Amino acid sequence: MERMEPAAAPSGEVEGNGVDGPLICPWCDGEDVEKISEYGPHLMVYSFMCRECNSPFEVIKR
Ligand SMILES: [Zn+2]
Q1: What does the alpha-carbon distance between residue 53 and residue 1 come to, in Å, rounded to a whole number?
Q2: Better-predicted residue by pLDDT, 14 or 10
Q3: How far apart are the CA of 2 and the centre of ligand 1, in A?
Q4: Fewer beta carbons under 10 A from the terminal one: N or C of the chain?
Q5: Structural domain containing residue 55
Q6: Which residues have a beta carbon within 5 Å of ligand 1, which is an ion?
Q7: By 3-state DSSP, what share of the chain in percent is helix, strand and coil, each rounded to 5?
Q8: Cα 47 to middle of ligand 1, angstroms
Q9: Is residue 7 included in any domain, yes or no?
Q10: Overall domain count for the chain
Q11: Average pLDDT, rounded, for the chain
């Protein structure tokens, strides 16, 4: 049995306006972002890539 982590508020991660809303790149504030992974390195995040500055970032699932 795996231990369930509490859904605590994350710190140091990007928080989008919900994954369905418009996302803004945390690096350049660009809106041209692309979801590159439904399941990133962590189950609780989506992986995105900003097309404007080519920087990856993660968004916490709500
Ligand atoms: Zn960017």
Answers
A1: 41
A2: 14
A3: 36
A4: N
A5: 14-62
A6: 25, 27-28, 30, 50, 52-53
A7: 0, 25, 75
A8: 13
A9: no
A10: 1
A11: 76
